[in-house]
Design a protein that fits this description.
Glutamine Phosphoribosylpyrophosphate, subunit 1, domain 1, EC 2.3.2.2, glutathione biosynthesis, globular, single chain, 2 domains, seven-stranded antiparallel β-sheet, GGT_ssub_C, about 550 residues, alpha+beta
């Protein structure tokens, strides 16, 4: 095997590595994983499985994503990696002046009609199906339609976050425009509990229209008309013309060569570049022991140096003032690496030389593999649901700046800095496999930790996910999980890190991994212990 899949590992887990040969789907909800695997068993491929799983996740994990999400994918097929950017742009009527006229002078609001950008997910599904799928969109969306129409029992972690969102929204979302969120997601006046059946007939109708029209109903037809009418009624800016103008983009993935492997990410406007810059910094160190203070210290310092660069420069790629090649150059990595000493620093952006999401991984027996991620952002997103459709809309526009000197300044038709990123690993010309960690600004930090757990420290897929994580937030502030050895936590504090031990593990992301043995075709999968995840294998 290229990478360790031994069943002996140092972190306590209720799960072992899962093996398969003909197909595998790993994601945060068992029902969705099984629906994806069913597509492979029905004659479809990994891409069909991913679309089916993603569509199911809009139903069986609505706390993290929905039909009104954005999506990104890395697809390995016929010996080549393809990138899909299915994130949407700001509506043409969403200007800084319009936002300020609505009373928001410092930033876009978190909730409501203003932060809603064009959803990319439905056309993303259709485009993946058109280019690489073997089954029709009707076939792959059928399981999601069934769960929405007939209901499913809510899982434990899902129930926990649903209840938290409902309690928060009751306090925050008081306008008439939010009524339909409560009608859809708290039909009995409360969030469903674990084991209770929840269904959404409007959601089923919308998915059926998307399936029958290859998503055109959403962008140019009946659903687009409903969205347009709702935003006009509530003084929003998303129009039918904005929806009709949207198309997902095929992009060239970007990579970092890391200790004999290639780590791949989606290019900006995604934040995958941050993970690659951090790995470029870290590959200059000889880190052989995982559970020691030096390793964690250097990882944290590299992550925060890369992060402040990403926050300073990443936006719509047509608007970036610094190229990704400059940020990922060896020369710049060495310059940033030299800033890492024995004490924690407060990071500042460098000057390069000129020149709340769901994640899934799927693979089939023919060697096709896909790393796929979609999200509403901040859990349920904007709090806006289009009446009787089940469409919960994202709030990605919240990340735009109203400061005209900022690199991510709000402009109509512009794509904002985006947190969701799929990852992929190769060695030479062979696919190793897809990996990812959902969870806002945790995602590139999670990618770095999983890659190093795998390559530097030889952990198998499940152990790489089980291992304790850190989360840098700002300045010298770092959150760590409670199972990080206390002697390391204390030693990091001695180095000047402002350490807090997080009680709720939800902030540390949720990941999935599938590795493929190129000699035997055997698939080895791991799933996130911090949620209700499953690896469905055949």
């Amino acid at each position: 095997m290229l990478l360790s899949t031994q069943d002996q590992y140092p972190y306590a887990s209720k799960r072992n590595v899962v093996y398969g040969k003909k197909g595998m789907v790993a994601t945060s909800q068992p029902l969705a994983a099984q629906a994806g695997l069913d597509m492979i068993k029905a004659g479809g491929n990994a891409i069909d499985a991913a679309i089916a799983t993603a569509a199911c996740l809009t139903v069986v994990e609505p706390t993290s994503n929905g039909i009104g999400s954005d999506a990104f994918a890395l697809v390995w097929t016929d010996g080549k990696l393809h990138g899909l950017n299915a994130s949407g742009q700001a509506p043409m009527g969403l200007t800084p002046e319009a936002v300020k006229a609505a009373g928001h002078t410092k930033e876009l609001p978190t909730y409501g009609v203003l932060p809603v950008t064009v959803p990319g997910t439905p056309r993303g599904w259709a485009e993946l199906s058109r280019k690489f799928g073997k089954l029709s969109l009707k076939e792959v969306l059928a399981p999601a339609i069934d769960y929405a129409e007939n209901g499913y029992p809510v899982s434990p972690t899902l129930a926990k976050y649903w209840a938290k969102a409902a309690a928060s929204f009751r306090k925050k979302l008081t306008g008439d425009e939010f009524k339909h969120w409560f009608d859809t997601f708290t039909p009995d006046g409360k969030a469903p509990k674990a084991g209770e059946i929840w269904k959404s007939p409007g959601h089923a109708k919308t998915l059926r229209l998307i399936a029958e029209t290859n998503a055109e109903a959403f962008y140019t037809g009946e659903i687009a008309d409903q969205i347009d009418a709702f935003f006009k009624k509530h003084q929003g800016h998303l129009t039918k013309e904005d929806l009709a103008a949207y198309q997902p983009e095929w992009v060239e993935p970007i990579k970092s060569d890391y200790k004999g492997y290639e780590v791949w990410e989606i290019p900006p406007n995604g934040q995958g570049l941050i993970a690659l810059e951090a790995l470029n910094i870290l590959k200059g160190f000889d880190l052989k022991t995982k559970d020691c203070v030096d390793t964690y210290h250097k990882q944290i310092e590299a992550v925060k140096l890369a992060f402040v660069d990403g926050m300073a420069y990443i936006t719509d790629p047509r608007e970036m003032k610094v190229s990704q090649e400059e940020l990922l150059s060896d020369e710049y990595a060495a310059e940033r690496r030299a800033l890492i000493g024995e004490e924690a620093i407060t990071p500042e952006p460098g000057t390069p030389p000129s020149g709340g999401t769901v994640y899934l991984a799927a693979a089939d027996g023919d060697g096709n593999m896909i790393s796929f991620i979609q999200s509403n952002y901040m859990g349920f997103g904007s709090g806006i649901v289009i009446p009787e459709t089940g469409i919960a809309l994202q709030n990605r526009g919240h990340n735009f700046s109203l400061d005209e000197t900022h690199h991510n300044y709000l402009k109509p038709g512009r794509k904002t800095y985006h947190t969701i990123i799929p990852g992929f690993l190769t060695k030479g010309n062979e696919a190793v496999g897809p990996f990812g960690v959902m969870g806002g600004f945790m995602q590139p930090q999670g990618h770095v930790q999983i890659v190093m757990n795998t390559i530097d420290f030889g952990l198998n897929p499940q152990a790489a996910l089980d291992a304790p994580r850190f989360l840098w937030t700002e300045g010298k502030k770092v959150q760590v999980e409670a199972n990080l050895p206390i002697e390391i936590t204390r030693a990091l504090a001695d180095k000047g890190h402002d350490i807090s031990i997080a009680i709720d593990e939800g902030g540390f992301g949720r990941g999935q991994i599938i590795w493929r043995n190129p000699e035997t075709g055997v698939l080895a999968g791991g799933t996130e212990p911090r949620t209700d995840g499953e690896v469905a294998a055949w």
